[in-house]
Task: structure prediction
Amino acid sequence: MSELLEVRHATKVFGGGRLFRKRAGMVALDDFSLAVQSEPPTITAIVGESGSGKTTIARLLLGLTSPTSGEVLYRGNNIQSLTREKRLQYLRDVQVIFQDPYEVYNPFYKVDHVLKTPITEFRLATSTQEAQRLMEETLNAVGLRPEETLGRHPHQLSGGQRQRIMVARALLIQPRLIIADEPVSMVDASLRATILESLRLLHLQFGISMLYITHDLTTAYQISQNIIVLYKGEVAEAGDVDLVVKTPQHPYTQLLIDSIPAIDPSKTWKKEKLVGDPSARVSTAAQGCKFADRCPYVMDICRNEAPPLFRTDEGRAAACFLYRDRPQLGGSDMNQVLGTHALAVPEGAGRVVA
Amino acid sequence: MALTQSKWGMAERTLEPAILEVRDLTVHYHTSRGAVQAVNAVSFDIREHERFGLVGESGSGKSTIALALLRLIRPPGRIENGRVVLDGVDLLALDDEAMRKMRLAKVALVAQGAMNSLNPVARIRAQLRDALQDHDVELSPKALDKRIKELLDSVGLRREVAYMFPHELSGGMKQRVCIAIAISLRPKLIIADEPTSALDVVVQRQVMDTLLTVSEELGASILLIGHDMGLMAQVADRVGIMYAGNFVEVSPSSGLFREPLHPYSQLLINSLPSLESKGRLQGIPGLPPSLLDRPTGCAFRTRCPRAFDRCVTEEPLLREAQPDRWVSCHLY
Result:
């Protein structure tokens, strides 16, 4: 078993009265399975709009919430019932970077605190000098100057600096996997590229796998090898990022990519008539394909049956009946289409711009 | 004055008269540590029917400009200097009551979190009615119903929405209600401050489409504020890029995105990830300067790869480097 972290048929339902009123709950995640290997290291992006279930996946993997049905396994053990020893190991192996670089800090502590705590907890250093050296090294690795960051309070640093300290903190522990939940959505455009580049360098230099959770397809395309597109708690399309972005097959992925405004004004924003309300709630009672009401290619079968994943390419699968002549993938076999090839080192890499 | 109008395409509007003239607008926030020079002698025009984009990083002063145009700057902020002329009226010279009447009637705001600015305990109809009544639009109940239906129609909402509460609507629908309120008095200028940044891309496209359609029907100009360069490229006719409280470049978007002139514009546009090609992601090194203590000369020189000695001593002024393309850089 080389799986570091595995989600098996996880379903998460929020709400839904059981005691007083019978009401259909809100399905945040529907029968989702994903295995994250630590070898070879990969970057997998999970992309979806708000309400697609992407943050629920992060919270499940972090053990911050438990699935309504299904399980989350860490090296084969259920994450909710790890022994003390395994739990400590899990905390070392899996690190997280959250969206908001403002809320994760305690404003009363200097920023050193978030770096010192893991050093003490995991006994990473034997002396104060060694701890200091370790902190400086990791800050350098993410492109921060230690003399400009250590000893300051969070309000004295910019959002981009704070977010990079969180990257440094994740790196300090030398994890096998970093779960990054919208790490750059609250950072300015000019810094966004720098932070993404430092995440990519961590992956290349230290062999850390990454789950990059985002709503932004453009950055997902830039840093990941695999992509999973979620729609209302289900996988719409998954596979090699170049295949999915360049030739999207699921109608939802196509819509998503067409909606991104291109930076080139000579390329016009494609306009399509959209049907249905994109934000209608999904209840457990919903049958068939969840995208059917908005889909331009909707067929009778879509209204009655939920589409399984069809393997449309060697490295890609789409949950759409348009491809029903292709071989069907079982829910837990999505990993077959997620390539494990290592990322090619881009030219000029190995240097982080401060 | 030919308007080669395509909804998303560029319109060549060289001779349109200006609907809004801003001259030397200066806004400072007075703090215990001194005056934060948020907007520093900014001048620009917005032409009739034009969609003008204002981009910049956080803290570059773009939202402060929006608030200053509406005269909604609150203490410790203060408009120190400048002139804002909208459709022939000097807004900064008006008394408070007259300015209050100008808002919504001549210049309307669609704010970033506008959807959260709706009153949660009032039906949409009441909120639209309030806006009209507050500006002395006296309508019979029947005429009011008709007007509200028209407004909802024009932003693509069903008429039943009038009888709903905000919590019954999705984010995109709420933002469209806000657009309906903004256009209810047929303003000349709509200021849209990051109107879609809280929305998903698919919904963003719908809301932007609505905003552009209604403004075109009204013949209103749009000041679109944001940091999404893709959105600017698709929507704006001209774009002004702000850095540390002033413009570094004001250009038609066709030229700007093809060939940015100012080093900051160049770095900013190059730092944007695209779906076209993969490559190394390159940010802009360094941080924007503190507005409490601006560097001498050019504000960007500390991060500029092409800075030279003149940049330290002399502050560059916005000048026309190419026809209709204004840059503040000593290289030009």
Notes: DSSP finds eleven helices and 13 strands in chain A. The first helix of chain A runs from residue 54 to 61. The radius of gyration of chain A is 21 Å.
